[in-house]
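Sample pair:
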Amino acid sequence: MSLNLILMGLPGAGKGTQAQFIVDKYHVPHISTGDMFRDAISNSTPLGVKAKSFTDKGDLVPDEVTNGIVKERLAQDDTKPGFLLDGYPRTLEQADALSQMTKDLDKPLTAVINIDVDPKLLTERLSGRFICKNCGATYHKLYHMPKVPGTCDVCGGHEFYQREDDKPEAVKNRLKVNVKMNTPLIAYYKDRNLLFNVDGSKDIDEVWQDVDKILSTL
């Protein structure tokens, strides 16, 4: 039986790491919206050309184009053992479209894994990053401080800065937008008995053990 999954989680929840673990163990392709768009555009598929006409202008790609690109991707041969969707669906309309296309392709969803982390903790995780002004080495207030306080390990510089989108206010705002987007989707999949919540505040390996436990019973 194929393993057809959606991976959800807020920025900083560790989705990328868990996606890699899932791919390595269960041999399903990791399908992220960014990669799908890039492939469709670089291969100049009819939908890729359409998507490019929007992205070139900095506009959002409309749902029918996005849905079409996803359906084309899910119809490819490498999804026979299953797939791992990441970054799609983003709206209830897209979730409905996905439900229809998985029915058409006879590849119904097996589960939706939501890596759940308190936004407060994510704010600390995401806004802790700072960078050496001289050489660009990256540090983190929680996980990776310079060995000598105030001195870069790499070049010995003493000046550090924080990128605008790593500043706490920007991070809080980004998380707020994502919570608003994810909440209806979580309810949608919960209603359909497809949702599995995993505590993402644990150690990476423990999170993986929890994810693997769920997947191995499906």
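The domain at 3-117+176-217 is CATH 3.40.50.300 (Rossmann fold).
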